[in-house]
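Fill in residues.
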């Protein structure tokens, strides 16, 4: 039996953070490395163009995203890792899909509605974002799409669009993909308690300098309870971040420290910092090494791009015939 297909992308719009790691990257790394899937993991540089306006920045952030994935343990022998733009067939499929969705349907997308509500300008690329993402997912025949909770609607759009195509051309061409969202980490809080996001600048980067890491941890927002007071861990941002790194046993003992009192926020932050430094051991060195000499990553992306393109082209040669372009 052929393996199930995993597809997941991440936008290179800034350095990756722990929200990205626990919400999406970790699932991609664990599932790909299990060898149970045919895995396509890519850096969504076409999607990044909706906001990034500097070529050097986009190139650098693309390399940094790949370096982060590798440093975090992605098994390169079990995954096709590539740049979205190495497969221009996805933009071709996007154009075909564009003709099957209506404006009112696209106007229901959360990302679009949020921007409209804030009176922000929405470029056409941003408006079409979910259709490009559907093309990403469907062109490789994804069964599962590991993402954080905020991407759930986008995977639903991919399912809808697969259905629209299948009905329009009266053929069972596209499989309906499923999202894979791990509820316990679906929305990790940032240092201010809101969802961790580059957009809110409340994120903790995976591989920033030790000094910046310390600064971020020390600026986690807390209430003004004194060290002696008993504290509710579930209402505490330090705990909510720290618990993700702990075994069940360690977690129990951390909860007890908060609940028993005598555990001040300075100490709680110092301990979180130590945990983060320990998590970074080995990984940070690997990351620094990879970004210092980009030749390894550039080669890898070239090979990955070729494999992904081959798979996408197989699909597109069928699609072009179905729609009458060939
Ligand atoms: P950001 O909000 O920082 O711009 P992205 O939108 O680029 O992050 O998200 C990349 C991936 O990481 C997506 O799958 C998203 O769902 C996941 N993700 C981002 N932030 C979080 C978070 N705070 N908790 C869980 N998952 C997250
Ligand atoms: N929109 C996703 C994000 O912001 C990135 C992405 C692009 C993606 N294409 C994808 C994720 C396909 C999963 C599958 O994180």
């Amino acid at each position: 039996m052929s393996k199930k297909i995993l597809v997941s992308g991440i936008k290179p719009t800034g350095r990756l953070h722990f929200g990205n790691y626990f919400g999406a990257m970790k699932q991609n790394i664990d599932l790909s490395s299990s060898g149970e899937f045919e895995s396509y993991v890519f850096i969504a540089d076409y999607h990044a163009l909706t906001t990034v306006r500097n070529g050097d920045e986009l190139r650098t952030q693309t390399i940094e995203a790949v370096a982060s994935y590798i440093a975090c343990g992605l098994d390169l022998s079990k995954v096709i890792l590539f740049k979205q733009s190495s497969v221009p067939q996805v933009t071709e499929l996007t154009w075909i899909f564009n003709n099957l969705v209506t404006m009112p349907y696209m106007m229901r997308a959360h990302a679009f509605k949020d921007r409209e509500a804030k009176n922000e300008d929405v470029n056409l690329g941003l408006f079409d974002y979910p259709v490009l993402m559907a093309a990403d997912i469907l062109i490789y025949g994804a069964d599962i799409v590991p993402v954080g909770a905020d991407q759930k609607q986008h995977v639903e759009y991919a399912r809808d669009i697969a259905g629209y195509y299948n009905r329009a051309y009266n053929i069972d061409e596209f499989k309906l993909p499923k999202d894979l969202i791990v509820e316990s980490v679906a929305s990790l809080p940032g240092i201010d308690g809101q969802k961790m996001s580059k957009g809110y600048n409340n994120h903790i980067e995976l591989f920033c300098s030790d000094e910046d890491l310390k600064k971020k941890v020390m600026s986690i927002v807390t209430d003004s309870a004194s060290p002696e007071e008993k504290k509710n861990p579930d209402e505490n941002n330090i705990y909510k971040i720290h618990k993700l790194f702990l075994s069940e046993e360690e977690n129990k003992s951390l909860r007890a420290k908060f609940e028993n009192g005598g555990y001040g926020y300075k100490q709680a932050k110092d301990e979180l910092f130590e945990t983060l430094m320990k998590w970074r051991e080995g990984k940070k060195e690997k990351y620094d090494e990879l970004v210092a000499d980009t030749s390894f990553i550039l080669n890898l992306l070239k090979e990955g791009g070729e494999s992904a393109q081959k798979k996408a082209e197989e699909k597109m040669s069928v699609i072009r015939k179905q729609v009458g372009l060939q």
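Residues 7-11, 44, 47, 133, 136-137, 145, 147, 151, 154 surround tryptophan (ligand 2) (CB under 6 Å).
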